[in-house]
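ugh finaly. both done.
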Amino acid sequence: ALCELSGQELAARIAVHVDGALESLKDNFIYRLEQSRLRRLLREWLEAEKLRTPFTVVTREGKVDAELSGLKLQVRVDRVDELPDGRHLILDYKTGEIDKKAWLGERMKEPQLPFYCTIHETPLAGLAFAQIRAGSSRFVGITPGARLPNMDKAVIDDVPFADQIELWRKNLERLAERFREGYFEVDPQKKVCDYCPHSGLCRVDETGDGDEDDG
């Protein structure tokens, strides 16, 4: 178990996996830099994970075929942990910035994990982003059934977790139905349009809507 590894044992395991992942770069000048960076980063993250209560990783990058209001989708989740009481915790790795409001409102910025919650058959203890960044690794999510170290709570509606999952289901079904119906309104969220090549069609630059903060 992770929590039973000494610091030296943990460092040795990290080295084996990092060196294996970078094998193709061994003759590249960046090899040593990347090797050192990844070893430090993973050591920082796993030392934080050692502080958790016992868990077992049951799924890594698992793919699930699902249907949402007539749309056939394939969802891939980075990781699912099983807790001692049998409930599952869904995790999604992130290396960039995390928006605590990513799961809020009818038009979620990050709908994948909420959707996965609506189709997951095993009772859930929560869901979280696992942000792996040097000096600022943390969890950001909703975990009413689990205690996580370095945890920041995501902003969601003030309802019980089971009700939140049902609310996500309804919002996602509504979005899927609009998509199937060809609903297309110039109603961008902040930064969504930054790299879109079709601004000449919707003329979002003329409306100024793309520069406004989310409501």
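ok and the 2nd:
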Amino acid sequence: QKGSRGVRVEELFRSGTVFAEPSDVISESVDAAFELLAHLEQSSPTAAIAGGWAAVEGLLGEPGNRSVAADHLASLVACSIPRAELTALSYKVEKVATGALAEELSACATNKQRAIRLVKAIIANEPLGISHGADEAAIRRMATMLGAPNRELITAKDLVADAFHRLYRQRNLILHGGMTGSVALSGSLRTVSKLVGAGMDRIAHGLYVNRLKPMELVARANIAIALADTKPPEHCAELLDF
């Protein structure tokens, strides 16, 4: 789509809640956040940054420290990365692997099952049949993650949080300083748009499927990161327990 920045909240379609009426105050606040998030997809850079950050802050900001919303959303994104990458890799492995691995992946009923099966294959050094350079790199990333999940998740969270804090600073320059011509606007949007969409997708899933408030989901993510080294490797495929 022309002008698209890749903001996707697919859970609204998966759960059939695109046209659902808000059932409580929390649902109303999430719906309002999605309306603001729409600006991040196709509006002008200034409106995209202002609306995009407002969506994040409205759900995850805290009184007296609104910028902490960047760290909260980064926790959700960091916890969603392993499942997303493992799921995508599992479909590629299914096409090229031979024997039991391909059959078992094909028989999985959910993406969670696929991700867990691939984790076991990576840990056991099963032949995956992957030969494409980018996919090989992804396998190595996941192997590193599975070997030291707490360290790697914290690293991922910190990197994503840095991007979100840049979004917050750009928003302040626009709304409080009237600086609408910054050369950093487009670069900031390229970095954060898809990441914000990924985090908001998890918020939508947590609310509409598991009835978890956004901050409850953040608490779950932070606990999952803190305890990652105490769990078996397969836990990386279910950090938010969906």
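summary for the 2nd one i guess: The longest helix spans residues 68-96.
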